[in-house]
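hiii, so i know i said id send this last week but things got crazy w the move. better late than never?? heres the sequnce for the chain we talked about at the cafe, plus the structure i predicted for it. fair warning i was half asleep when i ran it
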Amino acid sequence: MLDYLELETRLQEITAKVAEMVRFTQFDIHQKAGDLDIVTSNDLAAQHYLQKHLSELLPESGFYCEEENVRQLDREYVWVIDPIDGTANYARGIGECCISVGLLHHGKPVVGVVRCIFRDDVYSAIAGCGARKNGQPIHVSDRPFKAGLFCTAMCLYTKEHAALCNEIIFDAYMKCNDVRRFGSCAIELCYLAEGKCELFFELRVFPWDYAAALLILQEAGGMLRGFADEELRFNKPTALVGANNPENYRILADIVCRHMKQICTCPF
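okay and structure toks below
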């Protein structure tokens, strides 16, 4: 049995090195699948650093990473990595960007660390041991839906779904307090975990965006589910619905399902 506490401690040290490296290093920007999807040279450098040092930490582990099509999901332990979540923010010097690393054991998250790049904030969790920010316990808020802040996005890379997203966002907005868009799924889920917001929806999210933050949110008392209330898997993109408590989750999930009722299965 692995010592998850020791793994989490080492993971925090490794991600601290990565944050320092990308914070102070110049970078080039390249397009990936199109003009809207960018990658920086520091995304790639950060991923290579993480793969090297996490392989040394857990030699038999596999990797599932955003960059360079790294897919090794058949291992007992798998590191799910987004070297820079919120690359567009990072490229512009906007603070909402982070390094996100989750460790899966037989497909279940057991360790998660999300480290902000331009701030010293680090969120972490071990399965069954609660969630922390900078070493201090965190928990979701107890605000009701009508007082909740709603974090969401407009499905940037598949803009043909923007109208559907807009309908969902407007419906939820009319019932909650207000809407926020920070540009990093991992950070938004950590904000939900520490009680800064109460609601989350995004139509198309990849596992590296949420693997670490899912565990942090769950350990902080919150909920996060996939398309049509599915338990989250880590092998494909999915819709995400999250909230600070079951009642708020059900209200938001009902709104999402009502607008997506014409879709019988997740189109992603």
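btw Residues 4-23 form the longest helix (20 residues). thought thatd interest u
miss u guys!!
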